[in-house]
Amino acid sequence: MLVLPLMAQLEAHDGSRFAAAVHGREREDGLWEGWLEFSSTGKHVVLRTERETTQSTYDGLAYWASGLEPAYVEGAFERAQANVSQVADAAPPESG
Question: pLDDT tens-digit profile of 79-92?
Fold first, then answer.
């Protein structure tokens, strides 16, 4: 499992603040998939994106995560907010 905190602090439409992190896991076929999670700093709310990338190795996933630009993270945050079914203690995104 990969969890890489990002230096981004984002603000939702209602003023709530969120910290961003890249999460990843190895699939049964040996590939690594990654998604972004946004944890609120004031309430227990976690928003997550669907799978954002699939890489052949752990190192590939870590490299992808290290190159994320602020605009990409902001776009992922918007996608996560729009996907309200992915809130709080939900399981990681489905492989597929």
Answer: 999 886 545 444 55
